[in-house]
Amino acid sequence: MRWGIEHKETWLHQTNPTAKLLLFLPMFVVIVFVHNPNVLINWTIGFIALFMLFSGYRMKHVLLFFVPFLFIFISTSSSMILFGKGETTWFRWGLIHITEESFYRGVHLGFRTLLFAIFGLMFALTTKPVLLFYSLMQQAKLKPKYAYSFLAAIRLLPIMLEEFQTVHQALKVRRAAKANGFRGKLELVKRYAIPLLSQSIRRAQRIAVAMEAKAFTNERPRTFYYEVTLGKYDVYLLVVICTIVALGYYVADMFPYVAIKDVR
Amino acid sequence: MIHIEQLRLKFPGAEKRLFTDVSLSIKKGEKVLLLGPSGCGKSTLLQVMAGIIPRSIDVPMKAKALHIPKQVGYVFQDPDAQFCMPYVDEEMAFVLENLGVPRAEMKEKIERVLQRVRLRLPHVHVPIQTLSGGMKQRLAIASVLALDPDVLFLDEPTALLDEEGTKAVWETLKEVADDRTVVIVEHKIDHILDFVERIILFNEHGEIIADGSTNEIFSTYRSFITEQGIWHPDVWKAYEKPKTAQQPYEEGDVLLHVQSLRGFRQKEEKIAVDELTIYAGEWIAITGENGAGKSTLLQSFMKLIRTEGDMYWRGELVKNDGVLYDNIAFVFQNPEFQFVTNRVDDELAYCLRLEKRSEYEIEEEVERLLRRFHLSAQRHLHPYQLSMGQKRRLSVAASVTERHRILLLDEPTFGQDAKNTFALLEWLEAYRQQGKTIVMVTHDEHIVSEFATRRWGIENGKLVADEIIAPRMLVRGGMR
Q1: What residue spans define the domains of chain A?
Q2: Could you report the average pLDDT of every consecutive run of 10 residues in chain B (480 residues)?
Q3: Closest by Cα among B396, B390, B395, B362 to B378
Q4: Quick check: B97 and A223 CB within 8 A?
Q5: Whole-structure pTM value
Q6: B149 CA to chain A: closest CA distance, Å?
């Protein structure tokens, strides 16, 4: 989705959102069933390159986006590395038991999460929500009722954020923005959530009424302001993904980084 | 055009019927104003006439005859709750898509309608969020015009707008109305008396008590209209303010003094004042255009945003924000955001309990506040169940305690009817008489000229005027 961060429109932005979704989603499944760390490492390199070259965002922003995912990489892989089971012990100290097997398994898990992050980010950063839903309506025959409900909800988010700040200030002034103990904290969550939710529910209901008042019914066939079609860029994306996947396997086979071919 | 006979309507769960046998008809091309006290059911009637009830909002109703127009346009009150798309052109296109307008014709249609409502934008692909309230309402009018309606229904379209936005919206509406039928519900009627030709007057029981030409109704029922708290051009003329207003209370102490205070929002400097001193017993009105930095100044006084500069409370440098919270109370524009408990009386007791007063003392103080703010009958309710006026009163009553010396208010009379506004102003004046200080952001020139003792003008984040309106009390020792 759009984050209000300046960027260039590249061919990745021009791809059809539904096509992009259909190309990315199977990758999530495929990645889970790959057990050769060499393949995953190659894919990570390939898709990071694609992302950096063609997302249209500046390098410093791209690197910033990856900071939280790097953290997840380290945390998921380290817990597996430190406490996993294995036969070839490298290091043992109390609970910590590092084995060769657990090390590679951990690294493998880390790359898996990193790949998930890349696909998620790549989709989010190169797709406008409005076009995604227009495309889903036109290519995937999503009912307009649902598409526009989602779009209206997206509009509510920044308003909610603003309101959260106001509620925070208001509670601070009344010295009600802090609480001790479990019950106090629970009370605090309610204090923030109730005004925010009640405002949003009311607003959502009003928007729904306003939409129907603007003749939003199922009686007439709709036309579309944005015509979203399939194009050559979708073919490019398909080719690029297939190439990276195939090359990843090939290179992993010919020039493996580690000797292990299956981490299970 | 519209004909309703013996309409009966009751909201599920309500004790009484809202309408019992209400009949009315409106001819083609008429410009009609529905007038009456809050809660009398004008908006509901408008929604029945527009077909929103029962099509979109399901309310049980019955009528002997009900003829309503097919092509209607409805402009709602809340500028933030009538759009579903993020950009101006996309929102306009949403309406055209609903009508099945071919894609090729959309661009041109959008531009034409935007021009009609005089929404001049650099280009049509502008985020709706960046528009002012008045511009949003004109966009709402534009999207309604795209429907090419026979009847325009306007449900307090300017209730949440400032004076400037209100004026612009009515000017636009007068221009685009042409020979269309227009039915309006509105509480601020200064700008529309020359536009509407017929007024239908309701009482608080949802009954029509008068129906006639604007002049006729206005001259016969003036006192009734005033009693109902409706804003009309002569409200302030007829109002008798408290005798103490704008009279100094006593020699005022220096309370808050700030030096080169600057307030920031996301790194950006939004307000900067060199030096300001607030004395005890003052009523300071902060005026200026939307976005000039008025609210930001209030927030800076409380350090609710990032600030730089020195603040002195009664001559002592403020090092701990707690000093500010202890002595200054803040009333926000939307009262709901300030409520922290589930009951009106608990709400009033909240601050007192924080001060660790005895339960007996708290009980007594709460009783006193309930009476003072006319909330005794509502003490068991959840704050959200109160009416607009009651919520505002509760938010003031709950924020202020004995120890507070300054009361900051961000447009407290915004969206309130005349009756509630005067009640609030009178309470604030009585509060000032106890030696407390009022600092309020307002757009209402009448409040400035009738109640304020001093005015600060804010422009582009700078203090451009600091004028004494009422003779200032003698100040001991001058500046700090």
Answers
A1: 11-131+230-254, 144-213
A2: 91 85 93 87 92 89 91 90 92 94 94 91 90 92 93 90 87 90 90 92 90 92 86 86 80 87 89 92 90 90 91 91 90 86 89 84 91 87 85 90 90 84 91 92 90 94 90 52
A3: B390
A4: yes
A5: 0.84
A6: 10
